Amino acid sequence: MPTRVTVDVKGEDTHEIDLERLAASGNSGEPISYADLLAEVDLSPHEVSVLVDGRPVPEDQPVEADHVTVLRLIKGG
Amino acid sequence: MTDLRLDATQLERYSRHVIMDEVGPEGQRRLLEGSVLVVGAGGLGSPVIQYLAAAGVGRLGIVDDDVVERSNLQRQIVHGDDDVGRPKVESAADYVRALNPDVDVRAHETRVTSETIDDLVGGTDGERTDGYDVVVDASDNFATRYLCNDYCTLSGIALSHGAIYRFEGQVTTFPNDGDGPCYRCIFPEAPEPGTVPDCATTGVLGVLPGTVGCIQATEVVKYLLGAGELLEGRLLMYDAMGLSFETVDVRRNPDCPVCGDDPEIESIHDVGYEGSCTVSSD
């Protein structure tokens, strides 16, 4: 697991997240997941897709990439 | 630049196309022989319909089950004040007929559902004898968006995707003729209803769908011409407030439920499109 992850929320901000700090602040003992990254930047898995190398990753999987791209699902037409 | 298949009026009308090497009379003929179904005659659909009609796309289908409301007119520029209360497809079709008599415009006042999409896109409608080359997703809901993606992916029909939210837009093109991704490769499932806001609740900058829809129309014209580089494998993000564009590379997902290596979805009838657009349990 990387120690820092860049979360690039397209159309919004880019965040640097310290996974060791995030793990220390939690009490579940579970590995940090992509859903945890989303929670850290105030996004719900319902409204975005998390991509690693151009492909989506399941939000409940442990973080293995040091850079993720977050795309917002938008529906307007 | 004379081409006997373009008459004198057409040569004049399309002269700024024909004069370019990248289009020429052969390219214009391709446009005139092309067929495009625009799903949604709203914010995105309006500029798509206008520019495809002006370009001389020979057969233009328009699907929408809605009527024009006054609150639409700030951005849905194919409709006018006198059209309030009329079916959007009628208003849009009248616009096309007035703009370009070369275009055979077909108005379908219905909703795109798993029961109607094959008739609409595939060409089994009694009115037509063949289907469409391209579908333009200019819809405003996830059920239609995922249905169009699944149908076009499974059928190998090119799909232009566009979506807007407040000041931002997303556009990409799925030619569906090779190893490129589909919409579900990026967004495998639709969100639960009500979890993603729409334009009615958050608002939308009126000119935003104009920009995004014009990009969709550009992609369709290029696709029909067989010219240029399409937005295949690239999701274009547009931010109107920063006036910035960014592309995100996207790849076919081997785990994609519709075009992956072991797809769950082999037919649109496998999917319940009114929820999260996942495989039905029944």
UniProtKB/TrEMBL annotation, chain A:
<dbReference type="InterPro" id="IPR053834">
    <property type="entry name" value="SAMP2_halobacteria"/>
</dbReference>
<dbReference type="InterPro" id="IPR053833">
    <property type="entry name" value="SAMP2"/>
</dbReference>
<dbReference type="InterPro" id="IPR053752">
    <property type="entry name" value="SAM_domain_containing"/>
</dbReference>
<dbReference type="InterPro" id="IPR016155">
    <property type="entry name" value="Mopterin_synth/thiamin_S_b"/>
</dbReference>
<protein>
    <recommendedName>
        <fullName>Sulfur carrier protein</fullName>
    </recommendedName>
</protein>
<dbReference type="Pfam" id="PF21965">
    <property type="entry name" value="SAMP2"/>
</dbReference>
UniProtKB/TrEMBL annotation, chain B:
<dbReference type="GO" id="GO:0016779">
    <property type="term" value="F:nucleotidyltransferase activity"/>
</dbReference>
<keyword id="KW-0548">Nucleotidyltransferase</keyword>
<dbReference type="Pfam" id="PF00899">
    <property type="entry name" value="ThiF"/>
</dbReference>
<feature type="domain" description="THIF-type NAD/FAD binding fold">
    <location>
        <begin position="14"/>
        <end position="258"/>
    </location>
</feature>
<protein>
    <submittedName>
        <fullName>Molybdopterin-synthase adenylyltransferase MoeB</fullName>
    </submittedName>
</protein>
<dbReference type="InterPro" id="IPR035985">
    <property type="entry name" value="Ubiquitin-activating_enz"/>
</dbReference>
<dbReference type="InterPro" id="IPR000594">
    <property type="entry name" value="ThiF_NAD_FAD-bd"/>
</dbReference>
<dbReference type="InterPro" id="IPR045886">
    <property type="entry name" value="ThiF/MoeB/HesA"/>
</dbReference>
<keyword id="KW-0808">Transferase</keyword>
